[in-house]
Amino acid sequence: MSSEHEQLALLLWYPQAFGCVATAIALCFRDIAPLPNMLSSRSLLFAFLALVSFGLCAAAQQPGQQFFSSACASCHGLDGRGGEHAPNIATDANVQALTDRDLVRIVRNGIPSAGMPGFGSSLDEAQLPAVVQYLRTLQGQRKAVLIGGNAEHGRKLFFGSAQCSSCHMIGGRGGFLGADLSSYVSGHGPDEIREAIVDPNKNLDPRHGAVVVTSRDGTKYTGMIRNEDNFSLQMQTDDGAFHFFDKSAVARIEHSARSLMPADYESKLGKQGVDDVIVFLLKASVQPRSLHKDEVE
Q1: Pair 153, 159: CB distance under 8 Å
Q2: Same domain, yes or no: 79 and 52
Q3: Per residue in 210-220, pLDDT tens?
Q4: What's the average model confidence in pLDDT over 243-262?
Q5: How many distinct structural domains can be found in the chain?
Q6: In this predicted model, which residue has the larger pLDDT, 39 or 224?
Q7: d(Cα 139, Cα 79) in Å, to the nearest integer?
Q8: Strand, coil or helix: what is 261?
Q9: Could you tell me if 143 and 133 are in contact, meaning their C-beta atoms sit under 8 angstroms apart?
Q10: In CATH, what number is assigned to the domain containing residue 104?
């Protein structure tokens, strides 16, 4: 067997990268020359394993994934985050907030005013929800199931003993000093959220580090700088209060490389407690709403 055919046989081993092209290449062998005369036993084994792998990968796809990849991804992108012809439907909060029923209706009927076709003639009533469930996976809403935490306990920790809500807001509730986690959670996976909780000082954005401002009378203020120019600065302290300073009245401004967020949540809450908070955040970041009829017709 020639080296070129050996390379083609090896390429068949990568079905994720070549998809249906791998199958087409395998079929080409049949037309080029009699298969037994052209391929060595080793190459036949490679090709066989590749095709089996390709079949297993196809079978492992989530229900609805194949249709989304073939019909929806050309406009919305394979990750659902938008393309040249259609908007982001994965991390957009308005789309995430739609109920499954509304999304099924959109997939079935389309949105003619926006140029989106309906797929009711291509999908049956069992396949339509499968496409929506795959979209939910792209949106991250199925990540909470994989973690296995208790969302209700996580809610109690977030708004209670863990005191997360004293700085952070989610779903319109909580403090203002830290980031609004409603949007943060929608764009980050469970592992990223966990790392941010248990190691808040890792890869810390300097703008999010603690700042200590000392006035000329010796009073110290610790918090976050919200606005600053050459002559003044506006600061928010951990009690939520805002303070305005003329820099001529400031003795010292100290920028810390550490976050205001405590770094001991893993030991304080334990792994299960952290899991519970993550699951709560993932579920609370999307509050389903129902569309008005004229929004989908």
Answers
A1: no
A2: no
A3: 889 999 999 99
A4: 88
A5: 4
A6: 224
A7: 9
A8: coil
A9: no
A10: 1.10.760.10
pTM over 0.70: no
Q: Are residues 155 and 268 in the same domain?
A: yes
As given in the structure block, the two tokens for residue 174 are: 């909580």
Structure tokens at 52: 């089996």
Cβ atoms within 10 Å, residue 171: 13
Task: Report the C-alpha gap between 210 and 259 in whole angstroms.
Answer: 6
Within a domain: residue 291? no
Note whether 76 and 175 are same-domain residues: no
DSSP annotation string for 177-244: SS-BHHHHHHTS-HHHHHHHHH-TTTT--GGGEEEEEEETTS-EEEEEEEEE-SSEEEEEETTS-EEE
Model pLDDT for residues 161-201, shown as the tens digit of each residue: 999 998 888 888 888 888 888 767 666 777 888 888 999 88
What CA–CA distance (Å, rounded) separates 102 from 180?
A: 27
CA angle 30, 33, 36 (to 5 degrees): 80
**Residue 51: how many CB atoms within 10 A of its CB?**
16
Map residue 115 onto helix, strand or coil: coil
Among candidate residues 97, 93, 103, 99, the one with its CA nearest the CA of residue 72: 103
CB atoms within 10 A of CB 192: 13
Residues 276 and 176 in one domain: yes
Q: With beta carbons less than 8 A apart as the criterion, state whether 158 and 278 touch.
A: no
Comparing C-alpha atoms, which of 256, 268, 263 is closest to residue 225? 256
CA distances 290 to 31, 95, 97, 141, Å, are 55, 11, 8, 18
Domain that holds residue 71: 65-139
Strongest mean pLDDT among 3-7, 98-102, 178-182, 201-205: 98-102
* List of E strands, 49-113: none
Same domain, 134 and 251: no
